[in-house]
Amino acid sequence: MRPEGFEHNLRFINAQIITCGLYSATNNKMVVSVNGYTEQHVTMGSEPTDNVPDDDDMFAADMNNLKLDDYVTYRVSVLAQMFGREAARVYSEKWGLSLPKYRVLTVMGNLAEMSLRELTDQTQMDKGQISRVVSQMETQGLIVRKADDNDARRLNLTLTPAGSNLYKRTIGVSEERQREILSILTPEELAALRSTLEKLSSHMRARLDDE
Q1: pTM
Q2: Helix (H, G, I), strand (E, B), or coil: what is residue 122?
Q3: How many C-beta atoms lie closer than 10 Å to residue 209's C-beta?
Q4: Which residues make beta-bridge pairs with 33?
Q5: Structural domain boundaries of the chain?
């Protein structure tokens, strides 16, 4: 009999597999364990095959090693969600900014004029979402579209004076928040973190460009 909470944990793990691509199973199976109770499951999107050996001992060993915290993609995703939740609370309370609007405001405050495509690449937001956010910020008088000086067919986005002023008001809070978050790291750890993030970001951009 499945213990209480087993179904919840199974749904949670399956959701992370789909959203984060964090699970790499042997023989297209995963083992889920809750309070000593275990089950094997064929991973989503896979079909069982007759010619694959079913070695219970091998999967029992895999079960002992299967920990969500071992997957970097999962941990980065969770950490990003925590950063986002805190930021959303801070910027919503102070300036009525949603997290997507704050991200757009920050990117544009640092990079001046850019096309919608460039803004999408910089924020890595969904195209539909960023189009809606930009339209809302236009309506609020924070962003304006204008023709490119070198190509009239191209429309660039830029902050209005009101948008620039709002961005400047957020800088102090953003910098203080970052100092507080990173204060637990030594200078060596911070340098290693920055280097690692840059390396992973470049690697993932290259992988996405191949799609």
Answers
A1: 0.58
A2: helix
A3: 7
A4: 38
A5: 6-70, 73-209
Q: What is the mean pLDDT of each successive set of 10 residues along the chain, which is 211 residues long?
A: 47 42 41 45 44 50 64 88 89 90 90 85 87 93 85 82 93 91 95 94 87 65
Output the CA–CA distances (angstroms, integers) from residue 98 to 163, 182, 208, in the order listed: 14, 23, 27
| Residue 13 near residue 23 (C-beta atoms within 8 A) | yes
Ramachandran sector of residue 7 (left: φ over 0; alpha: ψ -120 to 50; beta: rest): alpha
According to DSSP, residue 26 is labeled: B
Q: Which helix (H) or strand (E) holds 38?
A: strand 37-42
Alpha carbon separation from 51 to 8, 41, 48, 152 (Å, rounded):
32, 17, 9, 61
State residue 66's pLDDT score: 60
**What pLDDT shows up at residue 13?**
44
Determine the CATH number of domain 73-209.
Answer: 1.10.10.10
